[in-house]
Amino acid sequence: MSIRSVSRWLAWLLVFSIAIFTLAPIEFRPVTAAPADWERFAAFLVIGGLFCIGYPQHRLQSAVLLLGVAMVLEGLQYLTPGRHGRVPDGLIKAVGALLGIALGAGIELATKRLMDPHGFLAKLRAGQEEP
């Protein structure tokens, strides 16, 4: 299985897991020592990165999808007893997703440059300096 396939599976698994925990009664929500805003941010950061790696030709569509997921999940919380959606929570998720996509794109670009047969690592191996 390729890294792209694994990233796709993990990204969708995390989206569905977050949707379940977001819409389930509050007592089913996993709790960590981190503040809730950091949890939201980190979860969507990871999802954004996974979508970026899994769907490299569809980064804009991934960004739009994840922004929509963040906002829809916040809106659906109004329909769930005991839960409350908030615009700031949705914005934290959205920023995490966008930053995750940007970081994923940067990591992919850096990896391609490092692995280029005529790039930096090849020149280091050959004893040449980067101009």
Descriptive report:
The model has no long low-confidence stretch (mean pLDDT 89). Helix content is 72%, strand content 0%. The chain is elongated and about 65 Å long. By secondary structure, it is an all-alpha fold.
**What are the segments in which pLDDT stays under 50 over at least 5 consecutive residues?**
none
Structural class of the secondary structure composition?
Answer: mainly alpha
Number of strands: 0
The Rg value, from CA coordinates, equals 18 Å
Strand content: under 5%
Shape: elongated
Distance between the termini: 38 Å
**Count of DSSP helices?**
5
Give the integer mean of the pLDDT values: 89
How many domains make up the coordinates? 1
Measured as a percent range, the helix fraction is over 70%
Helix and strand element order = HHHHH
What about the largest sheet? none
